[in-house]
Each structure stands twice: as C-alpha cells, then as structure tokens.
Amino acid sequence: MQDYHEFLDEILIPEEVLQKRIAELGAEISRDYQGKELLMVCILRGGVMFLTDLMRQITIPHMIDFMSVSSYGVGARRSRGQSRITLDINTDIHNMHVLLVEDIVDSGYTVKAVLELLSGREPKSLKVCALLDKVERREVDVEVDYRGFEIPDKFVFGYGLDADEYYRNLPFIGVLAAEKYNPGE
Ligand code: IMP
Ligand code: MG
Predict the structure, then answer these.
(1) How far apart are CA 129 and CA 176, in angstroms?
(2) Most CB contacts within 10 A, which of 8, 91, 150, 159?
(3) What is the pTM for the complete model shown?
C-alpha cells in the first residue's frame, strides 16, 4: 500500500471496528427489509467500499444501483448548498424499497438532493444508510435512518473517502493531517 503516513493525523476508526459495525448494520437491514423488494442505491464515489462490504452482510435478496452527485466548489469541503446529480440510476424504483448508501453526511445537501429526486418517483419507501455522520456540520435537516458512526467535525479519509482523490483504498477511517488540509476556498 502507498505511504499515507504524512497525510494521517490519527486513525479515527480502525478496520476491525468498521467491519464489526457494518456487520451489525447488515443484520439490522436484513431484518427490517425481510420479504421486501430492496434496492440499495450507492452514492459514488465515496460510498463504494461501504456498499460492497455492507452487501456481503445482508442476507436477503436485494439489488444495487449507483448515483453520482457533484457539489459546486472545489477542495475538501465541496458541498456548499448546491448539489447536482451527474449520474442517475437505471432502475425503475416505483413500488420498490430504496435505501441510499452514503459514505458520510456532512452539511446534508447531497443526501437532500438525492432524496428529493428519488421521492418524486414514488418508491414504496426511501431511507438513508450512512457510514459516517458529522452531526455538528448539518445545515439542512435530513434523517439518517441507519448510521454507522457519529464523528466530530474533522476532515476524514480512507475506506472510500478521498484526500484529494487518493487513499480511498485504505481499510480504516483516518483524520487528515492539518498541514494537508486544503479546503480550496
Ligand atoms: P454534504 O453534501 O455536505 O452532506 O457532503 C457530503 C459529501 O461531501 C460526502 O459524500 C463526501 O463526498 C464529502 N465529504 C464531506 N466530509 C468529508 C470528509 O471529511 N472527507 C471526505 N469527504 C467528505
Ligand atoms: Mg460522497
């Protein structure tokens, strides 16, 4: 694995802790959606590692699809109120139970934009599963139905989340070193 140490301030959530919590979420989702037509919609790109691990902990039949959302602005804290859907799902969700799978909810604008778009297509239900939740940073009201971890207001990377597009492959969640933090604003 490439050397990430200069980017890492501290490991916030080690691999074993992540995997244990994901197993719990998988069991909970499997129970809640038993006998229902479940579609998990992953928000690219950060949610991809979480989705693939979570799927393997889900014991009921389900489908997957992908969406991509871009936030205006550049740098680490991209989302500033405006989110645009750049890739839409192909699945017809009318009458399906849809679960959004997201890496992190920060201001809440990304999830809000996706919920607004998908709710107009009349799914049977629409819920949110987020691995990480920075509750303190919330600017719009969105409900997180399945939450992996509540985390402090720090820029994190690894396990799908990027530091300038790299290091998504790290198996843990780390806090970015202060000298590498560049919000680009
Ligand atoms: P929101 O729209 O502000 O809720 O932002 C959500 C998106 O911003 C996430 O899907 C991430 O792509 C990105 N993001 C927010 N916080 C972090 C972070 O600490 N590390 C990496 N990406 C982040
Ligand atoms: Mg994301």
Answers:
(1) 24
(2) 159
(3) 0.94
